[in-house]
Amino acid sequence: MNNQEHAWQAKLSELVESYDLKGLIEFSQQVPTGVADEWRRDVMESGFMTFYSYLSYDQMCGKLGDWGLEMLDDLIEAAEDFQGAPLRELRAQVLSYRLDEVEATDVDQAKQFALRAIHELDFEIPANRDALVFRARLYHQLAQLDVCQALFYWQLAIEDLRAVGDFSVWILYHRWKQPIDGMPEAQQRVCAEFNSRINEELITQPDRLWTLLDEGIRMQEYQPSDELEKQLSAWLQTALGWCSADAHPQLLRNAGLLLHKQGEIQQRADYLAKAIECFEQFILKEPAHAMEVYYMASVWEDWASLREGQGDSGADYLAKAWNIYQKHEDIVRINFSPLHHYASFLARLHCNEQLTKRPSAGQVIALAVEAEAMGNGYYSGPGMIQVRMAIRNEEAETAIYHLCRLLLRHELCISSEIEKLRHSLTNSVAPAIVNFLDQALLFMEDVSQGYFYSPAFSIEDLNNLSPTETIAAWQQRMAEIRKRRRLEE
């Protein structure tokens, strides 16, 4: 890239990031000599299309509103003028955003937006596969908006899916809010047809299974149905025979997480075993595997709970989880999150009196201190481990000291954690700890109205205080917070 190209790329980035459509249009009219083709390509891709992606993302996050949709229309019109050709798929996308905005309040207008979007896409079909999939979704939305023609529009959506060879769980297994003549029979026939096709495709494209499962499970959570549940069971059974050896690490991670969750929900040891296989394969392939160590250890821990729920011992499974952490301890200790999970796991093992082999309190605390330092005090988890360990060891002063450190660093931001800790205490806990937590919760309730987080102590400051100084500092900080001006004043 020469200096001239670098300069216009920088200018395009500046215009897009400042959402300056007028400036972008003016810039697009200043064609440099000698490099017109490169310039036009960059203005289109790094200018108009990048700007569109920014606005589209903001819309999906609910940040735009009407003014943003109007800007999207203006942007597309300007991009079409610059390119000299219509951008019909983008126009259809904006119309679908407008549909989403009004479908709950103005059905007639929503239908008009859907029909207009479909009209735009008609010009892109059959050459554009994505346009067919998009149009199928729009027909499905129309079917939900127009009960009288629901079957007609739904069948048009199915025709587009057939044409493109796609499979949409959301369209095929949709549950209708009211009975529609002919729909149950049509859905049954179409689902049988598509499932037969998918079964054939999975022979040559086995990885496609995970997209189906991901979409199907999410739909079952949102719109549960007996038919979809049966199909999910069949796909999960297929997943147990899936060959993980050649899979990409990202797919292995996703597959392992999905199987772990389903194994936990359905109490299925075979799903848990397959999840472990996926994480083992990931670790073999990917040097940066710290979180996958945590994921695999979590599966073993949940498997232990499953065994215990069945009246058996889970000790061997907990030992496997601990072994995984020990085997990969070097990489686990590089990142805060897996290190914190490791410390939390060892704390649970330490407190499990059914185990013959447990980590010592010193091992747990050492890891918690290491995690706290790595997190630079921004996270309350490591400190809370130290609090609970002190309570368990009947060290009331130490527990209160660590609570004061946490409160000085996080203040009211950890009110729910303090409340959870208080409710978890048994009658055997020292009264000093109970009284301290009760007073802390009363203080938080008193100052919550108009409170704003502006901590007075960094982790470095706290590390320079003795336990006595730390406890005194919290008492002083409470007085300061009570006296300071509140946000609503």
What is the typical, i.e. mean, pLDDT? 93
Task: Output the helix-strand order.
Answer: HHHHHHHHHHHHHHHHHHHHHHHHH
Largest sheet: none
Q: What is the first-to-last residue Cα distance? A: 55 Å
Class based on secondary structure composition and strand pairing:
mainly alpha
Radius of gyration: 29 Å
> Based on DSSP secondary structure assignment, what is the total number of beta strands?
0
Question: What report would you give on this structure?
Answer:
The protein is an all-alpha fold. It is built from 25 helices and no strands. The protein has helices spanning 3-17, 21-28, 36-60, 66-83, 88-102, 107-122, 129-145, 150-164, 169-172, 183-204, 209-222, 226-240, 249-266, 269-285, 290-309, 315-327, 329-332, 336-351, 361-374, 381-392, 396-410, 415-424, 431-447, 459-463, 467-483. The protein starts with a helix and ends in a 6-residue tail after the last helix.
Short structural summary:
This protein is an all-alpha fold and 489 residues long. It has helices at 3-17, 21-28, 36-60, 66-83, 88-102, 107-122, 129-145, 150-164, 169-172, 183-204, 209-222, 226-240, 249-266, 269-285, 290-309, 315-327, 329-332, 336-351, 361-374, 381-392, 396-410, 415-424, 431-447, 459-463, 467-483.
